[in-house]
Write a structure and sequence with these properties.
By secondary structure, this protein is mainly alpha-helical. It is built from 4 helices and no strands.
Length: 122
């Protein structure tokens, strides 16, 4: 009985893991300063965001914004100090479990044209 109850949670966790690792891989590829075409290192739950993947503080802030949007959650402030995907996983789960954003519609993304309009209004 407990096996069947654990399976949906395991499947959900695997889905979160896959989505999170995909977000990290995309961002790491965007900020990577190596030669074009250079293979990225394998990205795992335990890859260190800064040391292994080159995600500095600005890139980690961008990652957290992307996680908020992709998972429709609001991560706690201490998520900024997470140094791996494994450290982020429970924070994503807690934000979802406590309903930070369950009933909230997805946030619209700010386009570059929106930013220039905001600057013009000042």
């Amino acid at each position: 009985m407990s096996d069947s109850q654990g399976e949906p949670n395991a499947a959900a966790s695997e889905g979160v893991e896959t989505r999170l690792l995909t977000l990290i891989a995309r961002l790491s590829a965007e900020v990577r300063s190596g030669p074009p075409g250079q293979a990225l290192p394998p990205i795992t739950l335990d890859s260190h965001l800064e040391r292994d993947l080159g995600l500095d503080s600005l890139a980690r802030a961008e990652l957290l914004t992307r996680i908020d949007t992709a998972f429709n959650v609001t991560l706690p402030e201490d998520a900024f100090h997470a140094d791996s995907a494994r450290a982020l996983m429970p924070l994503i789960g807690m934000a979802d479990m406590y309903g930070d954003a369950v009933d909230r519609p997805p946030r619209p993304l700010l386009r570059a044209s929106d930013r220039s309009c905001e600057a013009d209004q000042r």
